[in-house]
Amino acid sequence: MGFVFSKSMNENLRAQQEFMLMSSRLQLERQLLMQNQMRERQTAMQIAWTREFLKYFGTFFGLAAIGLTAGAIKKKNPGVLLPIVPLSFIFAYQYDMGYGTLLQRIKGEAENILDTQSALLEPPKGPLTFEELEKIRRSQSKFFIEK
User: Which residue ranges run through the membrane (predicted)?
Assistant: First the structure.
């Protein structure tokens, strides 16, 4: 009789463990999907912001180029056109970020760093441990009571 009870309890325990494992896997999968969705939305917002900024900066750049060109012709001094050089670099960067391949190149470089230069990613003094966090918390806490 005890053996049948024991066997039934073992089966129930095993079924419960499998359920808990599947439940934790499902929770982890949902968490990963949510984090990926949030990252994609943040990236889309960054690209949209860059495109919107480009509209305003492009207008400014165009007006500045026309004004500086007119000023250079009027004063017969090509030095007046010098501010166009840095402005054109900023415009080209923003255009590449919003409509070009800058993000793909950045992603490729990031993958290269992850694959070949992972030592650069290590935090100073190594990864943070629970003991270090507790030490910092205790030193900063005003309400900590030592047992």
Answer: 53-73, 79-95
